[in-house]
Amino acid sequence: IDDFAPRLSFFFASHNNLFEEIAKFRAARRLWAKIMKERFNSKNPRSMWMRMHV
């Protein structure tokens, strides 16, 4: 997982409600980091980063 996960990126849609969108992005980042660490036992901290484009 640590070989390819640091190169993954995600695309999100954004709407007009700024605070709702911020909450969505923060939740996605936290979920990604938790899944990478707990389920896939990632050792590389960069694998837990979520690169996103909006």
Largest sheet geometry: 2 strands, parallel
How much helix, percentage-wise, in residues? Answer: 40-55%
Q: Termini, distance in Å?
A: 25 Å
* Oligomer class: single chain
Which residues form runs of ≥5 with pLDDT under 50?
A: none
The strand line-up of the biggest sheet is 1-2
List the SSEs and their pairings.
Layout: E1 9-11, H1 18-39, E2 51-53
Parallel strand pairs: 1-2
From the structure above, extract its key features.
2 strands; 54 residues; elongated
Describe this structure in words.
- The chain is 41% helix and 11% strand.
- The chain has 54 residues and is α+β, with helices and mostly antiparallel strands.
- It has a two-stranded parallel ribbon with strand order 1-2.
- Strand 1, helix 1 and strand 2 (51-53) form a beta-alpha-beta unit.
- The longest helix has 22 residues, at 18-39.
Give a quick summary of the entry.
This protein has 54 residues and is of the alpha+beta class. The protein contains one helix and two strands; from the N terminus they run βαβ. The protein starts with 8 loop residues before the first strand and ends with a strand.
